[in-house]
Automatic annotation (TrEMBL):
This is acid phosphatase. It comes from Gordonia sesuvii. Its EC number is 3.1.3.2. Residues 1-30 form the signal peptide. It holds the Pfam family PAP2.
Length: 382
C-alpha cells in the first residue's frame, strides 16, 4: 500500500478519533471539577497532523522485517528451534507467568508497562491516568487508537504478507492454552499470521516513549516491554522470531517519531505534563521519589533480563554480517543524555548493542535495528 493511498484514509481516521474520543481540550475540561485546574489536552489540529512519521517508507515495514523470509526459505533448523522454544517456554511457565501473560493480553499496553514504574510510582501513575490528569500522555499512548501507534495498523499488512501460522495452530497438541474463565483468547487468532507480534510492537513503542519521558526508569520500562513480548510466547500465540520482529518494528517507529520535529514536539509536551503531574502528586522532586521507591527490578537485573530476551538463545546465522546502528536511533536517548550530541548518543547505542548476524538482523541500510539494546543504553552512566 503506497503512502499516497494511506494519507487520505489516515487523515479521515485521525479526525474521527479526535472528535469521537474527546481527545480535545473541551472534552477534558468537561470532566468533573477538581481542586487543581485540569491539564491541557492536545488540540484536534495537533493530533490530526498529519506527520511524516505517520507513513512507513514505501507503505509497510517489510524492508526492515524481511529477514524472516530468508530464515523461512533457507534455515529450517532456525524455524524448528523457533517452535521448540515456544513449546519449552509455554510448557514450563509458572502460574505467575501464566497469569501475567493472560492479564497482558487483555490489559492496555500502557497499564502493563506501568508495572515497571516502581511499587509506589506505578499506582500514582495509574491513578493520574484514570483521573484524566494525563490527557497528552493518554492521547499518544493509551489504547489501540493511541496517536503514536497509528502506523502500527500496517502490521496487519505485514502479517498477511508473511503469512506465518501461529504455534498453537502448528503444534496444537504441544501448546497449553491459558485463559480467563469464560474467555477464549485463541478463538480469533488462528486465522491470522504470527509475524511480527503486534502486542510486542505496541509494548516496545509505548515503552520507548514512556522510557523517554522517565529516563530514570529506562532499563526497567524496557525490560517490561520485553516481558510483554515474552508473554505472547508463554501463551503459545507467538514465536521468539515474532517477538524479535516486533521489537525491530517498534524501535524503528519510535526513532522515526522522535526524529520527526512536529511529532517530537507532541512527545515533549506530553513528557512535561507527565513529570509535572507526577511531581504534584508525590510532593517531592520526581528523581528523589524514584530513588527512594522500591524498583520493579534493579538496573543490573533489568539489563541482564532484557539481554536474554533479545535473541532467545539463537546463535548467529550470519557471523560475518556487518551493519550500522541506524542514525535516526540517536533520538531514542535524547532525554537520557540531553547534553550529548547525536553522534555521541549513537556511539552509546553502538557500544551497548549486541553483535550483528543474529536471526532477523540484516546487512545494509535496513539492518541494525535488532541489535539495539535500550535497557543497556539507558543504564550507561552519563
Amino acid at each position: 500500500m503506497s503512502t499516497s493511498r494511506l494519507r487520505p484514509a489516515l487523515i479521515s481516521v485521525l479526525t474521527a478519533l479526535t472528535v469521537g474520543l474527546g481527545l480535545v481540550s473541551g472534552g477534558v475540561a468537561a470532566a468533573a471539577p477538581t481542586a487543581v485546574a485540569a491539564p491541557a489536552a492536545f488540540t484536534p489540529a495537533q493530533l490530526v497532523g498529519p506527520y511524516p512519521s505517520d507513513y512507513p517508507p514505501g507503505g509497510t515495514y517489510v524492508p526492515v522485517l524481511d529477514g524472516f523470509s530468508y530464515l523461512r526459505d533457507n534455515r529450517p533448523d532456525i524455524i524448528a528451534q523457533n517452535l521448540r522454544t515456544v513449546e519449552r517456554i509455554n510448557g514450563s511457565a509458572t502460574r505467575a507467568e501464566q497469569n501475567d501473560a493472560v492479564a497482558i493480553n487483555y490489559d492496555d499496553r500502557l497499564l502493563s508497562l506501568s508495572e515497571a514504574l516502581g511499587q509506589r510510582l506505578g499506582p500514582v501513575f495509574r491513578k493520574l491516568l484514570a483521573d484524566g490528569r494525563l490527557p497528552k500522555v493518554a492521547a499518544l499512548t493509551e489504547g489501540y487508537t493511541a496517536r503514536a501507534m497509528l502506523p502500527l495498523g500496517t502490521t496487519l499488512i505485514e502479517k498477511e504478507i508473511f503469512g506465518n501460522p501461529r504455534p498453537f495452530v502448528v503444534a496444537p497438541g504441544k501448546i497449553e492454552r491459558y485463559n480467563r474463565p469464560g474467555e477464549d483468547l485463541y478463538a480469533d487468532l488462528g486465522g491470522n499470521g504470527s509475524y511480527p507480534s503486534g502486542h510486542t510492537s505496541m509494548g516496545y513503542l509505548i515503552g520507548g516513549l514512556l522510557a523517554y519521558w522517565l529516563p530514570e526508569l529506562g532499563p526497567q520500562i524496557t525490560v517490561r516491554a520485553g516481558e510483554i513480548g515474552r508473554s505472547r510466547i508463554v501463551l503459545g500465540v507467538h514465536y521468539p522470531l515474532d517477538v524479535m520482529g516486533g521489537r525491530i518494528l517498534a524501535t524503528d517507529l519510535v526513532s522515526a517519531r522522535l526524529s520527526d520535529p512536529g511529532f517530537a514536539s507532541l512527545v515533549d509536551q506530553a513528557g512535561r505534563q507527565l513529570r509535572a503531574e507526577l511531581e504534584r502528586a508525590v510532593g517531592v522532586p520526581l528523581a528523589r521519589f524514584i530513588a527512594a521507591d522500591t524498583p520493579y527490578m534493579s538496573t543490573q537485573e533489568a539489563v541482564a533480563a532484557h539481554r536474554q530476551m533479545m535473541t532467545y538463545g539463537f546463535g548467529k546465522v550470519a557471523p560475518g554480517q556487518r551493519n550500522e546502528i541506524p542514525a535516526s536511533a540517536a533520538a531514542l536517548l535524547k532525554s537520557r543524555f540531553p547534553r550529548l550530541s547525536d553522534a555521541q548518543r549513537l556511539d552509546i547505542l553502538r557500544r551497548t548493542a549486541i553483535d550483528a548476524g543474529y536471526p532477523l538482523d540484516k546487512a545494509g541500510s535496513n539492518g541494525g535495528w535488532l541489535r539495539i539494546d535500550l535497557a543497556a543504553a539507558y543504564a550507561v552512566t552519563p
